[in-house]
Design brief:
Layout lengths: L1 E4 L8 H7 L3 H10 L1 E7 L2 E12 L2 E9 L8 H15 L4 E7 L3 H9 L3 E6 L2 H5 L5 E2 L2 E2 L3 E7 L3
Parallel strand pairs: 4-5
Antiparallel strand pairs: 1-2, 2-3, 3-4, 5-9, 6-9, 7-8
Bound molecules: coenzyme A.
């Protein structure tokens, strides 16, 4: 599997991006402003992530997704680790990520990769998403904010 930046000959992997964010409008906004990477295995895009500069020396991992057929094999962890490397290489001091209070496996994944919880954006999903989201039997209403700091 190789991970590389998307280029304008590639088809934007909306099917994957929409797994992580149900808003196509939000996706179009951040892929335009951020750096999108794709993971390719046997000529198929099996994963993607987007990092975006948000403040001086700060970037956010705004979308990460692995094709359902390829989940649970370590690709997601590999992509998070790669996003950390790319952000560091871009001179970033802090990489942030936000996920739903109900996204239990994502919260596990980010913390296993070194992210620490730094806050809660209360009612974020209630305010910004018109459809109700339920995962693991839990209403997704708040965004849990996590970050990892680099000493560079
Ligand atoms: N408790 C403890 N650890 C858990 C867990 C749980 N409930 N659920 C997952 N994990 C761990 C796994 O064990 C693994 O860690 P390990 O390698 O130390 O065992 C890690 O989380 C991730 O596993 P991995 O196989 O690398 O993940 P993946 O390839 O399935 O990708 C996602 C993870 C989230 C990217 C993928 O499920 C996905 O695309 N989901 C839909 C989109 C999405 O939700 N994106 C994130 C938006 S915030």
């Amino acid at each position: 599997m190789i991970i590389r930046p998307i280029d304008n000959k590639d088809i934007i992997p909306y099917d994957l991006l929409l797994l992580a964010d149900p808003s196509k409008e939000a996706i179009d906004d951040y892929i335009q402003r951020g750096n999108t990477y794709i993971a390719i295995d046997e000529e198929t895009i099996v994963g993607t992530y987007v990092i975006l500069k948000t403040r001086p020396h700060t970037m956010e991992l705004v979308n990460i997704a692995v094709a359902e057929s390829h989940q649970g094999r370590g690709i997601g962890k590999h992509l998070v680790q790669d996003s950390i490397k790319k952000a560091k290489a871009l001179g970033t001091h802090t990489l942030e990520v936000g996920t739903g209070n109900s996204s239990l496996s994502q919260l596990a994944l980010y913390q296993k990769c070194g992210f620490r919880i730094i806050g809660v954006d209360k009612d974020f999903f209630k305010i910004h998403y018109k459809d109700k989201i339920i995962e693991n039997g839990i209403d997704c209403v708040d965004m849990i904010r996590l970050q990892i700091n680099f000493n560079n």
